[in-house]
Each structure stands twice: as structure tokens, then as C-alpha cells.
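worker-03 picked up job from queue 'complexes'. Input manifest follows; two sequence lines, order preserved.
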Amino acid sequence: MRRQYARSVGRLAIAALVLATGAVTFGQTKIVVDGSTTVGPLAKAFAEHFMSERPGVTVTVSESGSGNGAKSLINGTCDVADMSRFMKETEFKAAVEAGVFPVAHVIAMDGIAVIVHPSNPARDLTVEQVRDIYLGKITNWKEIGGPDKPIVVISRDTNSGTYECFEELVMNKQKMAATVEYVGSNGAMRQRVQSTPTAIGYAGLGFVDRTVKALSVNGVQPSRATVVSGVYPIARPLYMFTNGYPKLGSPLHAFITLHLTPKGQEIVEAIGFIPVTTCDSPAGQAEGKE
Amino acid sequence: MTSLSLPAQRATRRNVGRLSRPASAWRRFLGLVGHGLLLLVTSSSVLAVLFIFFFIARDALPFFFTPEVSVLQRLREFLTTSAWYPSGNPPAFGALAIFVGSGLVTLAAACVAVPIGVLAAICLSDVLPFRIRQLVKPLVEVLAAIPSVAYGFFALVVLAPLLQSHGGTVLSIGWWCLAGPAAALTVFVLSDLLAARRPDRQRRALRLTAGLLLAALAGLLVFSVGRRLAAIEIDSGTNALNVALILGIMALPTVTSVSEDALQAVGRELRAGAYALGSTRAETVIRVVLPAASGGICAAIILGLMRAVGETMVVWMASGNAARIPNPWYNLLQPVRTLTATIAGDMGEADHVTGSARYHVLFALALALLSIALLCNLVSEWVIRRTVARYR
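worker-03 finished. Artifact:
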């Protein structure tokens, strides 16, 4: 919900911006951001904050998918490519041939918790078990050491970045069973799981609270620390790619390092991702939230 | 009269048979403009419908006419398979389960809204005193003013957990409320009918014994079905039943209000005539008023159903959205996915940049939805015209 909210606010901001740039005189620094729909909301929130700090700079953010982001960077039509995956070999080759040298900046971590009702005795599942549940191969809790109850399997809608991440890291791009239910937001997911004793679902780590139980996967409990250290399996870095490392002190440099500032980390958390700086940031507070 | 001047007299003579002097060319032009403007305003709603149809069809057709697959193949996949993976690789666009889901939910909502709505309309128009009717009808119409997201929230946060934790109890209570009165009515009518042909002496005794026997039978039936229902456990509260109940309630004000208007439109004369021939109130309502108002009631039902078919928010929040035909198909206790929820839910990222088939298939769904709506409207028009012709 929060992600969607931020997205729509971002869209409004963009619309306003487009109108404003038409009216305002030229000569301003402009940063064009394009790419992943997962990173998009974060980039938009960054852009909003960035522009309020530096009135002379305009940042436009579009969301056309990771692949298109890479393409735009190679064509030179954008300064920053948002990507929810690393650049492919072919993309790198095309970039170098075009005289563009992509540099990756990891701006946040995307971790997904597998959640069940607090009364559920299940504690730990392997990624394979989670996949089999979503493929419809495991349909009863007794098959994985629970009570003899059918599993109510709940997924996020296919539009969300959370779904995309889950599909990539858990499903191996295999199709979910037709019996899987879909909900439209992380909030609705939490609501469904906390009121359904036999349900299993997944949500961005930032949305997990005490009303649901986050399972450990492959024996690793999801937390900010395990996600950032890379031990927790259902997590991935989110990238911004630039052409070379931006000139130090330039607006682009400031934008691309925004996630390292306290305000940037706050924004990352508000969107539902995990700051890469978690190790020395208020980690205790993060643990307490789970 | 003689005081009129000569030109005035001439003018009067010229204007015989006319109300005023002939209009000048300018005025005639103005009149034409006025007519044109009015026509434009009137036809703008029609134009809006045509435009919507045109633009939806324009974006829907590319889904069927693609270079990769033939039209027939696409149509067959769309209408006869039920694998719905628009974002998959390769994608699958089988919408059969979605059509079935929409139909099932609408049908079940009709089962809730139609009996309650029509009975309530009869009660409002022919049973309740005028003053109470004036009080109750606006209250019923308030139901229509509640925003659908509020209904959806209720369905998700209250009804779904209730169905999960006390599903059997809810079902059996519902069954008792429906089947109890229905069984009692059937027993009374049947025992009356059985006893009607007998001579007077035997009639009372026969009616009593038949009534008791039938009552015992019906009671046993209702009770056993109720017990079986009470044993049911519902796995997932966001299912077709949940949505059907809510949609039924949402369609209720439309059905009630429009049916009541239709019943009122029948008029005093028919009712007075029926009473004068010695009919009871029940006979008047069932034999005279209802048939005369049947066209309007049909229109009310179709209007109510249209609301159920087109409702999006409630369905998206509380139907479970699993793109699968329930097993067996009438099983309301399983999640379903509907046309509207699919369009709303899949719209977000499916812009034409990322995946064209994924974008156009939603318009194909919208086109189907719009066609269903138009068909329903045409049918209701036809029904009304037919009954009006019969009763004039």
C-alpha cells in the first residue's frame, strides 16, 4: 500500500514537473532516471526529496522495466538506469560498444519474508518447500509436519515488485498453481494471513509485524542483518546504473549517494526496502520491529 | 376594432392562422442553432458510449490479431482454456475461469438480491402503511450510497475471518432462515390443497394429519441439511460466497427501489378492481399486481445484476482472485477471479511498453464486459416493451 501510495505521489510529482519544466527557463541541471518498476517508487521518493533540497535540479523518473532502463542508459537517453537485476552480458557488450561504461550502485536490499498465522506450528521451510507449496505440489500442512489442514496459498498480484522478486528467487520462473489467491497490497496480505490460521503468504520485510509469523527459510530467520549480509535466501540487491562513476560533487553524484545519508535510509525504509547500511544503522530498532 | 391603423390591419390579415409574425432569416438561423445544440447535448451520452466502445475495441483487437498466433488459436485460448498467466514466460491468456467466476458470483448475488429485493418491494408498496413506507424506502436507498471500498473492507476484515472460523454455523443459520419459512409455507399450502377436495366433515381432520406428517418430513429434511452444513469447514474466507453476499446486499437497494416504483406504477384501479372482485390482498398482489409490474421488476433485477457484474473493489479485495474454475463449478466456498478484478489488478504495470499482449488482453476483457452490459440492457428493454404491450 505504501509503495503504491508513494508511486502515485511520485506520478503526480512527475506530472507537475513536466508542466513546470515547460514554463521554467532552461539552464537547470536535469537528471533523467528510467528503468525497473520495483526500484521506480524508491527513485521517485529520492527524486522528490532531492529536488526539495536542491531547487536548481530536476529529476524525472520513468518506469519502463529493467531491460528498458538498460537500453536507455546505452542510448544515452537517461543518466541513471534503475534495475532490479544485474546487467546482462549482452547489455554490457552493447554498452561498451556504444562507449558507455555501466557502473552499478546498490541502493537498497529487497527482502521477502514468508509469513504464516502466529498459531501455525511451522517454523522453518526450505526454498524448495515454499516453491512446491506455490506450485500446488504440497497442499496440506501435514506434508511438512503441520496439522492435517489444507494450505491456503496467498500471493501478491502479478504487478507488484514483491511478486516479481518472489517469482525470480523462489519460483525459478515456474508458474504458480491456479489455486493460489491474489491480494493487491502488502497490507491486504498481512490482513489475510493474520486472520487465516492455515494461510501462507509473503510480504516485503518492512511490512512484517507481530500479527504474523515470519518463517525462517533454509534455516535462516529473515531480518535486516541476514538480508544485508546475504545469508537469507529470498533477497536481492536493487541497483542504479550510471555511465562511469559520476563526477564527484556533481548533482548526479549527490543523487546516486543519497541512499547512504540518514534521510536516504529513512526513505528506503518508508518504501519497504532495507537500507544497505543496516549493519551500523539502528539495527536494534529493526530487530525489535519483527 | 375600427381604431386599428391600416398597416396593422394588413398585418393581422397576413397572420391569420399563425401565432406570430413569420420569423426573419436570422431568427430562423438562431432556431436551427438551438436545435442543433440540444441535439448535440442529447446525443453526447450516446456518443460517449460509442466512443468508449470504439476505443476499447481498438485496443482489444491487437490482442486477437497478432503476428505470432492466428486469430482462431487466440480466440480458442482466450475462451476455452483457464490458464491465466499474463506475466508468465511464455504468457498464457486463458480467460474461461474468469468468465465463469464473474458468472458464478453474479448468479449467486442474484440469489441473494432478487428474493429479498422483490419481497421487500412488495412489502413496501402493498403491505406497509404509507407513512412507514415513506420512512423505510429512503433508508433502503442509503445502502446504495455506501462506497464500495467500505463494503470491500467489511468483506475482507469482518466477513472473511467469520466465514473461516465459524463457516459451518454461518451456513446453517443462513439455511434455517431461508428454508424454515419456505418449508412452513409449503406445508401449509400442500396440506390445504390435499384437503380441499374432501367433504367438509373430513376436511379438518385430514388437513391436520397431512399438515403434521408433512411438517415432520420437512422438519427432518431441513434439520438434516442444516446439520450437514454446520459440519462444513471453510478453508478460505475470501471466496465466491463472501463476495456474492456482499454484492447481493449492494444490488439490494437498486432491486428494491426500482421494483417498488414498478409496483406503484400499476395504479389504484387494478388493485381496486381486484379487491372489488373479492380477492384477498395476497391474491391481488400475486395474481394482479405482480404480473402487471413484471416488466419493471425484470428491469430492476437486471439493473441490480449490472451493479453486481460491474463491481470491482469488493471483488478485488474479497474474492480471492484465484483464476480457477471452482470444483465442482457451483462450489461457492472456493476463491474465484472476476473480469473486473482482473482488469483492475493487472492494469498497473501492463502498459504498452512492457508487454503488448498483456496490455491488450485487458481491453479484450473490458470489451467482453461491455458487451455483456449492453446485452443485458437490450434484454431488459425488450422485456419491458413486451409486458407493456401486453398490459395496455
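worker-03 released lock.
Strands of chain B lie at 84-85, 92-93.
The mean pLDDT of chain B is 86.
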